[in-house]
Amino acid sequence: MSAENTPSAAAPVSELELRRVAIDTWRENVAYLHRDCAVYRAEGFQALSKIEVRANGRRILATLNVVDDLSIVGCQELGLSEDAFAQLGVTNGHTVTVSQAEPPESMGALFRKISGERLEREDFHAIVRDIARHRYSKIELTAFVVACNRDELDREEVFFLSDAMVSIGQRLDWHEPRVVDKHCIGGIPGNRTSMLIVPIVAAHGMLCPKTSSRAITSPAGTADTMEVLANVELPLEQLADIVRDHRGCLAWGGTAQLSPADDVLISVERPLSIDSPGQMVASILSKKIAAGSTHLVLDIPIGPTAKVRSMPEAQRLRRLFEYVARRLQLSLDVVITDGRQPVGSGIGPVLEARDVMRILENDPRAPNDLRQKALRLAGRLIECDPDIRGGDGYAIARDILDSGRALARMRDIIAAQGGKDFDHNHPPLGPLSFEVLAPSSGVVAGIDNLQIARIARLAGAPKVQSAGVDLLCKLGDAVTAGEVLYRVYAGYPADLEFARQASDKVSAYRIGTADDLPRVFVEF
Amino acid sequence: MSAENTPSAAAPVSELELRRVAIDTWRENVAYLHRDCAVYRAEGFQALSKIEVRANGRRILATLNVVDDLSIVGCQELGLSEDAFAQLGVTNGHTVTVSQAEPPESMGALFRKISGERLEREDFHAIVRDIARHRYSKIELTAFVVACNRDELDREEVFFLSDAMVSIGQRLDWHEPRVVDKHCIGGIPGNRTSMLIVPIVAAHGMLCPKTSSRAITSPAGTADTMEVLANVELPLEQLADIVRDHRGCLAWGGTAQLSPADDVLISVERPLSIDSPGQMVASILSKKIAAGSTHLVLDIPIGPTAKVRSMPEAQRLRRLFEYVARRLQLSLDVVITDGRQPVGSGIGPVLEARDVMRILENDPRAPNDLRQKALRLAGRLIECDPDIRGGDGYAIARDILDSGRALARMRDIIAAQGGKDFDHNHPPLGPLSFEVLAPSSGVVAGIDNLQIARIARLAGAPKVQSAGVDLLCKLGDAVTAGEVLYRVYAGYPADLEFARQASDKVSAYRIGTADDLPRVFVEF
Q1: Contact A66 B24 (CB under 8 A)
Q2: What is the ipTM of this complex?
Q3: Model confidence, pTM
Q4: Which Enzyme Commission number(s) are listed (chains A, B) (predicted)?
Q5: Could you tell me the domains of chain A?
Q6: How many pairs of residues across A and B have Cβ atoms under 8 Å apart?
């Protein structure tokens, strides 16, 4: 059907010498070609084109930058930024071939999702595979995230997405009938129950290999806080050894390659503060399945400034979690909790590590709300043990904590993960600080989770471990005018200034009477 | 309310010496800081942070890359990529200050749109202002485009967006009561009526300062085709002189800074093939208002592979255009036309320029469908002249064309815009080509606009001016097996190969009987 009029239609072979360019472009592969490079001209590349670089049977995609300085890259060379160079994995001076990158295979499925169509299982698999292989540009990645935002995914699509995310990463198998885990959907500053629950249930003998995320939009995730006490970036083999020896661990899922697509998606969701039900369910459940969990207790806090603001909304989210969990064959127990205010006192990695250690040490200064919540959730997990009667879990958890067995187990886990020096009596807090005082006398009638989180993040948390907010009063406390409500710590003057401006602009505390307290009807 | 505990909370002044780094990052401002630079460490920047660079009262935003090579950037220096350096507009070695960039002002409005809220006039103004000032990252830009996709904008929001896009750019005032223009929503390859209509209506004495776009997803826009004949990137003053002298011009809107936000949005819409009704209306009408138009004839082609596929859809789009045009005080005449197949013979800049010049020259080889369509649309525009009776426009337009007055006017405009050598008898076509033959005898019963456009783009159009597709048969033509249906031209072997593979995979032509022809009921 096609009549040839040309001497040769073969694409030119485009060989160049690899050069490592000492520029750190962070997760964005960049290739540098000199403007006078014959390949650049012959192939009709443009700056910002995606090109494919091959060497030794490996291939990577990179965004092209065009260079006019021979000291950065010569005419026979292809430069690669640090990350791209490491990914290609060959030495300086190695021969590489380059070509215009073909668009990712799943582009058609992406375009259909953008125009509002329902996608099938194989579409989600193709998209997630391309994402995990870093074949999507920032633009394509963002388009996928926004097109799946809000209620754009139906519940079966959420299952397809979760399933695809599981299938693309490594999956752990602990060879035990029960592997338990607990997770919170987030949004409540200071809510570090995992660091208490893991040592409690592990001390009870249950297997609890906890992989946590870093903060996405919050001032600290469990991984950020645990990192104050120990190393959280563990190779899988070491993680398995620790879990075998101690029945638990507190590591970071990203390093363990458990859900590689999720980490890429988060790099876009974070700056857009996107956290839709579908993406939340897929992200959480895929990581749990990949980590080998069989039983999960899920904490959904509800309150005026929590992620979930009403009981009907909480119930809708619960049903979506339950539907997808069942399709993934995960046993799920959803607990709807009080999310009217931050949990514990400290917000930020060091401050939260301080609270956790005080609870484990049975220190009288420990925040009781965090202690109680952790005990109740640990109790629910313990009741997954078929030898435990329903309702007995809480008392067992409390006994493990009171007796110091939880502390001992935590110390073992910390040591196994490469413990760092930390003294909860002298936590290494940011050198700069300011205090916010009660403007009038009365009762603390409201604490804004979002505003507290914002102030803590502006102060530098979680990037600056020592930064954050320390809450000296909680809901229902009586205060007198001029009393300290909270103290903000920062590591850098500019951060302190940003935090102060935010704190001055919108008060995170509302002072009223006991009648003004928001009401919630939850289990705990 | 805020008690001070720190000696000084002022942000450190971060002065560095500016260095131009000869890397072309195309529209993405990049700043380079050495990892050992004191400012980098003190400010707690990260690779990919957005930083603000100030000098001489000007400020730009840039994405940070961290460098470990002192030959690229020293410890006291701040490097800027070519575009960023040009934008800041100070000399090498100048002192600059850097700081962490504050998020764009319109972030809150963007987040509200992402979560599905309706935005107000001031929200759109804030967003469009930030976009035009390049304060949005690729992620934020994509999120805005996808969140406004499909029917997410109601008609008043489309007006707000259009109005904001007008207000942010320059706006021309021609000091005449009638400034006419014509525009097509696109999607039909070869549809180059503007290059015929402008000289016809200008020869009639009407003011028609046509600013066109380059191709977004098509093989050629009017600006790309006009660029074969003359310069289209004209400074505003020169454009005004040409229009005063000749009553018309054919220039590129982007260069003229008429709708700076639109160009930035297109950089994201293009790779995602997004072309939603709201964005289409805002993009087209804002550019017309900015160019000073008072009367617009709008061409909406309809057909099985056109952008608009059914009459109800065309009517919905017509009403949206009419609503927004009225709010913008633009007189609008919408014409729904036959979009079942490409218009004219050539697809691609050089081939389309050939067709246009043959029509103007009254050459017998000229494609009659393009000629007829241009005459009818020109007639509609001429009827905006209050001295012309309704229905007389077509005959006037035909007389101007037949008499050679349109050709003379086109030659004047080409010369004024810096004419290039072009001979329509020997158009400089791509040196490589292949032909596609009829697989059987019959009647051409279907030509796929999308597939023809895809093949022409793969062949290199519009980047390679000489590349494209030349259609030798059109709908309704009788063909015999082995007869040439179309010929593909390319400039590079790889392009030819891509085009051939696409052409082999899916046929752009359907051969059947005269009864198989798709039907449309349109004006022309």
Answers
A1: yes
A2: 0.82
A3: 0.84
A4: 2.4.2.4
A5: 15-100 (2.40.40.20), 107-168 (1.20.970.10), 180-255+275-416 (3.40.1030.10), 432-516 (3.90.1170.30)
A6: 220
